[in-house]
Amino acid sequence: MTAAHASAHDVEAAQEASAQALHSAWQATAPEPADDGGVAHAAAPALLGAVDTLEDAGSTLSLEPSLAQSISVGANTEALPGEEEPQVITESEVPVLELGPDGEPLIDTEDEATATGPDVLARNLDGGSAPDSPVIAVGSDPNAPVANAGTDTPEPTAITGADGDEEAVAEAPLTEVDAGMEPYAIPYAPDAGSLRVRRSIAVRSEPRQDSPSLGTVAQDMRVKWQGAMRGPDCDWVQLQPRGWVCERYLEQNFREPRVRPLPRVEEGALTPGVYARVVGHRVRAYPSLALARKKRQGVLLKGSVTVKLLGQVKVGRRTFWRTSDGQYFEARVLREHRPSDFSGLDAEALASLPMPFGWAQSRAAPRTDVVVRKAPDARAARETTLPPRTLVSVRELSPDGQWVRIAEDHWVARDDLHVAWSLASPSIVEPGARWLDVDLEAQTLIAYEGDRPVYATLISSGKPGTDTPEGLFRIWVKFAEADMTGTMGKASYRVATVPWTMFFEGDFALHTAYWHDRFGEPVSHGCINLAPKDARALYGWTTPEVPTGWSMVHAMPEDPGTWVRIRGQAHEAPKKRRKGTAPVVATVRDL
For 26, phi and psi rounded to 5 degrees? Predict the structure, then answer.
């Protein structure tokens, strides 16, 4: 080893030792856990309104100024805690639907397949044949199954072919003779460029209906095949890259294979569509445009409802919106959610940052600038202020553990930082394997390959009282999109097509939260909320791997899910209540 190499190694070892010593001091001065599962902290003032951020917070304080972002303005935290104030919808952002001869909108088949995504996704869990899909109840019982596991006998289902005609496709019952029949290979060489998937259907691990489901291939994907076998219930086609589908759900197509990543996201968009919250009293949803115009046969909505918009229809001076599940609303009862543009740091950015580092964001007032003082004392002179989520280095901890030095004579209160620590992998994780580390106290997530951090970001976990479970878990199923429902007391909520959802323990999941920008704060009902860019990146990075064109995938022994370690306890700053204001009983924060 040369002198230069030895010197570099010594410097690296010294930095690692210093970081370990700092982490030990941090843990030694951490607040004691409270009896209620939260963390006891001094009382903090209520959340304050957002203020204008400084244009120049001092380059010496930000490790990467271009990555620092401010929280968006406009949320009414008392009216809808955990949810950004939705905005009036900009009509130009949603396509205008053309009306057909019957006066109803013409829907592109691919859009329709995407629009019914959540039905399709959940349908896989009961064998891919149920006409009505269950929605996913979130964060209520960690041991409860998400949906039917496929033991029920499926009912016949009408399938719409390429020509628009419907035909009944039922699962053939097994006869006593068929039951003992072993699948065997048959010649299969269709004169076609691809096989079109006629409806979203479960992909089986073996050529039989009772074999485990690998996941779901989406409707209208044009797939390749590898071979075929005759089984007891139908002829099974082996798809690329893996799995078996009953031939009755496939049709020959002259075009080349074509599969697309799901969910489909337009270039430059943050999410797979426009989402809106239903507002007002006694709002009704209508099954067709004609009935919406006449205000007849509408279904009265209860609780908090969020929908995904597919398109708009203008009839005279009235505008109606069609949702992804085929319902119609008048535009006046919808308010758009604006997803957060926040994103974490990728491997390249992390490689240039000394660990540990942190995001400057106050827990007491997350939307206000963070005060930097010249000494570790609340009475010390103010040096400067930092916009929320400014990246800073973590260099020293004060003796009492309440202040952090981020630069020479620049000190920030401990509670105004969300620190990312580089930690060793759990012993159960194989060397070099991918895994996630979630720190509930810091509200951070770090993705690792072995002991090397490759992604880091802020999260929103369960608030005290609806805590995110601690422990070591594995992702067991991933959905491109999933409807989520829940209750709070006697009220209910329903949130449409939540993108990039990864379940790790029962019905607890990592998923997109397109309805708020409160990352760094524990506001959920138990799940781990991610900004859209972060959720999309982690969905593609984690295992089980989702084949292109699949809308859902199960973890299997040969493709196990990514390990997820969740540690610490979240705490939430107390908030003042306005006199005479009724408490909110159900909002979309509860995911």
Answer: -60, -45
